Amino acid sequence: MEELVKAARAVRDKAYAPYSGFKVGAAVLSGSGKIYSGCNVENASYGLTICAERTAVFKAVAEGETEFSALAVVADTLRPTAPCGACRQVMAEFGISKIIMCNTKGEQRVATLDQLLPAVFDKHDLTGDGKC
């Protein structure tokens, strides 16, 4: 997981955050073992901003990956930063169960998606297969 955090930390520098100054980096580990990284990209129309976590996942999906085991996120915060709700929902879609939250001081916290997003809405809700 050290390489995953390292990739998230490195891509954070590439974030486009001219409005908030809040730079975030993320990296996701695919089922094939490849790491995909992404940063947040802001827009003057704030609703069009995309988070680093979704950038990393969508980048991997664009390369044909749909299975993932872990995601790391890094930001310059007082405590390790947690993904927003939209990113948590995307992680649920792709079964990313391990999330490594970090700050730039080197502090880390690891959580499962179940801890961060209890009572998730996912594809099982759409298919009616009875998953609770």
From TrEMBL:
Q: Which UniProt key words apply to this protein?
A: Hydrolase, Metal-binding, Zinc
User: What reactions does this protein catalyze?
Assistant: cytidine + H2O + H(+) = uridine + NH4(+); 2'-deoxycytidine + H2O + H(+) = 2'-deoxyuridine + NH4(+)
> Which GO CC terms are listed, alphabetically?
cytosol
Q: Which GO terms describe its molecular function?
A: cytidine deaminase activity; identical protein binding; zinc ion binding
Pfam families in alphabetical order: dCMP_cyt_deam_1
Which sites are catalytic? 53 (proton donor)
Cofactor(s) needed:
Zn(2+)
| Enzyme nomenclature, EC number | 3.5.4.5
* Domain CMP/dCMP-type deaminase: from-to ranges: 1-124
Function of the molecule: This enzyme scavenges exogenous and endogenous cytidine and 2'-deoxycytidine for UMP synthesis.
Q: Which family, according to the similarity comment?
A: Belongs to the cytidine and deoxycytidylate deaminase family.
PANTHER family given in the database record: CYTIDINE DEAMINASE
Q: What is this protein called?
A: Cytidine deaminase
Q: Which organism is it from?
A: Dendrosporobacter quercicolus
Lineage runs:
Bacteria, Bacillati, Bacillota, Negativicutes, Selenomonadales
